[in-house]
């Protein structure tokens, strides 16, 4: 951007993350107006009696494919569309492009509301004869009365508003799912070609209207105020251009003056992500490892200036601070002399010679001798000046008067950073040449991800072996080095998650228990309670049948059932699923299978259970709340379920701590599964027994819950009860409490009251009865079975 005499050109600056009024394209307004005019003409044409003789031949179309097949195809495509739409929404949230997501949601709302408005208008003007067949079509039950498909209009509007998706396959899959649903609706006779065309027009109009009303994201520019602030200091820049970010993540500019160049770092008071990140690290990390909070802008500005002055006074190659300005409210500018650097990221491997590596360690040692810690060493904060002298940038995250632990953390970071470029051996050898073997050996306990800067930890993803190679090299040079990692974490993420889950579960249960008379449990109908008990007992036989089908050796039925009861006893002291998994593995081993075969066979049974869980859940959710497939639209239950599942999946994929936790829980289920699965496919009888037992187990649990609800006079659809159980079981499997205790009760009660429509006065005793029959009651016979199996040496 060039500075001109009349002032800076508007909008040429760097985005600071704040969003103001978005760009509004006139073409969006024109499309919205044109679409609205066309839609307004539809009721007028209906009122005039326009109805061609051939109503798009709905009978011929309906005869092409059976409605049941079309319903299945539409169900799959609807699920795909919902999943992809949720994935796009999560991606927009992660990237903090909130206006794009708002535009998509507004387009979906406009499409859904516009379709409803057109339908109401057509019905209002069509008279006693109803809408023309040209728009409604017919089915076996007779003519329909909803010309436009509201769900399709919302989906088309959402897809059109977010049409500029970066992943081409994602965009193709989304529109393919919408197209398949539209074809299913058309071929089933529920709609006609003109009505689908009008539905697409409503969606496109909603997208255009949302595009103009919400607008596109446009960053607020501080280029003009920044230029005025520089002129206040007597600095007349000829050009001002963005230059990425500094080591701390703050936006950076480069200003060209007639005789020199300046670097400008902008600090913001509304940097919420950084504050939250620091708060999390302060909560999770101990003492000097945790970063200073520095919540206020003034505190951060003072600290950045102090670090620069201190490093320059120590003799480091740090640019001189030229000015400190305030270009806008809540924004500060740190202006420094420009020093041209070649960063480590931009250097070729041939340039990283031993003298260059030694120079980096000498420069870091210079800072450390003056008790200055860098705190944010990374590939873009380490480099060399044009004269070849090593230099570090991004000192704003560092510390003066730093304790020895902070300087050792810098050494661990530089060891890791150089190992990523030149290997562990050369990185350690260079450090030993400059610092000495004793100093490098003292860093060994700090070679762990928690000790590294955030940016460097991201570079390590997928290359975790680098830290192991560094430890091996240091241990080889100094066998007496302390090998045990230092405890740097105040609390593990899993501990935080467990505490949060326990708190939420306690609050939910307390809210549900308020005002409920627990004595109503004794009022259960004995017939329905007996049926629930029989179904709960059937769970043990179904679980035994599933295990016998997946294990390649012959297992006695009676003893296998006893093992399932013993598993009920073991799981009261172990997280859900893990106790039974270990006991079944031990039992299969004692029956003559090798340990590897037992682990893989039991893991296969668990894996098949997980694999069948998802499609059953989605199918039951799809039919919940719909008496018939009126227009092939997904139910509200399915929409809520898919959104919840995708949100959880996105969180697991994006948060490393959650991803590690899930992998630790899932890995035992899939260990050695593939060879066993291939062997099982060659034995259809065993496969049928194993899969049949798995499905029967799910059915028995669902029936137990269904009968428990009926025992207290409640009424609920079997599909809705299945959704509640499957979702509650998933929550219990993820909960860190033994047997999912607390989490399962809260999930089941919430599901019965919201999804199945069961009153809380019925749902609470029903859930308690279900848990007594499936969790608590089997404990006593399980204790006896456990000791009996031990006496028989069967476990």
Instruction: Please state the structural category.
Output: alpha+beta
Q: Label the overall shape.
A: flat
State the strand order across the main sheet: 3-4-5-7-6
- How many strands, what sense, and barrel or not for the largest sheet? 5 strands, antiparallel
InterPro entries: L-PG_synthase/AglD
Subcellular location: Cell membrane
Membrane topology: Multi-pass membrane protein
Main location: membrane
Provide tags for this entry.
3-stranded antiparallel beta sheet; 61% helix; Phosphorylase Kinase, domain 1; 4 domains; alpha+beta; Transferase(Phosphotransferase), domain 1
Can you offer a commentary on this structure?
With 795 residues, this protein is an alpha+beta fold. Helices cover 61% and strands 7% of the residues. Helix 18 crosses helix 28 and helix 19 packs across helix 20. 43% of the residues are buried.
């Amino acid at each position: 951007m060039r500075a001109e005499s009349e002032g800076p050109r508007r909008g040429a600056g760097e985005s600071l993350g704040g969003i103001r009024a978005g760009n509004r394209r006139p073409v969006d307004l024109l499309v919205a107006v044109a679409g609205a005019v066309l839609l307004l003409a539809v009721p007028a044409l209906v009122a005039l009696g326009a109805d061609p003789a051939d109503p798009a031949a709905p009978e011929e179309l309906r005869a092409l494919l059976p409605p049941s097949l079309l319903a299945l195809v539409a169900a799959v495509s609807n699920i795909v569309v919902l999943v992809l739409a949720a994935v796009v929404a999560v991606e927009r949230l992660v990237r903090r492009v909130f206006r794009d997501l708002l535009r998509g949601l507004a387009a979906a709302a406009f499409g859904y509301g516009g379709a409803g408005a057109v339908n109401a208008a057509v019905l209002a003007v069509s008279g006693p004869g109803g809408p023309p067949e040209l728009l409604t079509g017919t089915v076996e039950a007779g003519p329909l009365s909803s010309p436009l498909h509201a769900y399709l209009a919302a989906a088309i509007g959402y897809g059109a508003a977010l049409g500029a998706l970066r992943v081409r396959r994602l965009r193709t899959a989304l529109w393919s799912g919408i197209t398949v649903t539209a074809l299913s609706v058309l071929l089933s006779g529920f709609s006609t070609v003109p009505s689908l065309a009008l539905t697409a027009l409503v969606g496109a109009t909603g997208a255009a209207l949302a595009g103009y009303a919400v607008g596109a994201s446009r960053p607020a520019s501080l280029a003009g105020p920044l230029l005025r602030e520089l002129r206040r200091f007597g600095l007349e820049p000829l050009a001002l251009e963005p230059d990425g970010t500094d080591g701390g993540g703050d936006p950076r500019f480069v200003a060209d003056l007639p005789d020199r160049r300046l670097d400008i770092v902008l600090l913001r008071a509304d940097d919420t992500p950084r504050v939250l990140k620091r708060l999390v690290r302060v909560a999770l990390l101990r003492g000097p490892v945790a970063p200073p909070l520095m919540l206020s802008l003034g505190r951060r500005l003072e600290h950045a200036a102090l670090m620069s002055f201190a490093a320059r006074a120590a003799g480091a190659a740090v640019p001189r601070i030229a000015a400190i300005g305030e270009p806008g409210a809540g924004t500060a500018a740190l202006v420094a002399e420009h020093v041209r650097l070649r960063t480590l990221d931009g250097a070729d491997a041939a340039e990283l010679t031993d003298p260059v590596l030694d120079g980096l360690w000498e420069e870091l040692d210079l800072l450390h001798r003056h008790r200055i810690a860098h705190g944010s060493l990374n590939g873009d904060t380490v480099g060399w000046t044009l004269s070849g002298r090593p230099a570090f940038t991004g000192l704003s995250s560092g510390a003066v008067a730093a304790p020895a632990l902070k300087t050792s953390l810098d050494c661990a970071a530089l060891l890791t950073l150089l190992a990523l470029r030149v290997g562990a051996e050369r990185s350690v050898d260079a450090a030993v040449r400059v610092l000495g073997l004793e100093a490098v050996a003292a860093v060994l306990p700090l070679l762990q991800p928690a000790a590294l800067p955030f940016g460097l930890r991201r570079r390590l993803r997928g290359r975790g072996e680098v830290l192991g190679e560094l430890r091996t090299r240091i241990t080889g040079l100094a066998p007496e080095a302390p090998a045990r990692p230092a405890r740097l974490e105040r609390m593990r993420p899993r501990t935080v998650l467990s505490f949060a889950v326990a708190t939420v579960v306690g609050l939910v249960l307390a809210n549900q228990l308020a005002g409920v008379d627990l004595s109503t449990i004794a009022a259960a109908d004995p017939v329905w309670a007996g049926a629930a008990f029989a179904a709960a007992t059937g769970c043990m036989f179904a679980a035994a049948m599933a295990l016998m089908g997946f294990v390649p050796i012959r297992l006695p039925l009676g003893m296998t059932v006893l093992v399932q009861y013993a598993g009920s006893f073991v799981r009261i002291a172990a997280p859900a699923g893990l106790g039974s998994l270990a006991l079944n593995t031990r039992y299969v081993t004692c029956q003559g299978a090798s340990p590897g075969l037992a682990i893989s066979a039991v893991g296969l049974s668990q894996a098949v259970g997980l694999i069948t869980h998802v499609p059953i859940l989605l199918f039951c959710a799809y039919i919940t709340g719909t008496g018939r497939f009126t227009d092939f639209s997904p139910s509200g239950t399915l929409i809520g379920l898919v959104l919840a599942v995708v949100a959880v999946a996105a969180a697991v994929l994006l948060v490393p701590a959650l991803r590690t936790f899930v992998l630790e829980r899932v890995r035992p289920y899939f260990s050695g599964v593939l060879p066993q699965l291939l062997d099982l496919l060659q034995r259809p009888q065993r496969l049928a027994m194993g899969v049949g037992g798995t499905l029967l187990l799910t059915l028995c649990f669902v029936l137990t819950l269904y009968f428990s609800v009926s025992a207290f006079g409640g009424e609920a659809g079997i599909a809705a009860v299945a959704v509640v159980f499957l979702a509650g079981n998933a929550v219990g499997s993820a909960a860190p409490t033994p047997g999912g205790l607390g989490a399962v009760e809260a999930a089941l009660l919430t599901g019965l009251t919201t999804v199945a429509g069961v009153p809380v006065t019925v749902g609470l005793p029903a859930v308690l009865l279900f848990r007594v029959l499936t969790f608590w009651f089997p404990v006593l016979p399980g204790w006896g079975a456990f000791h009996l199996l031990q006496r028989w040496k069967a476990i």
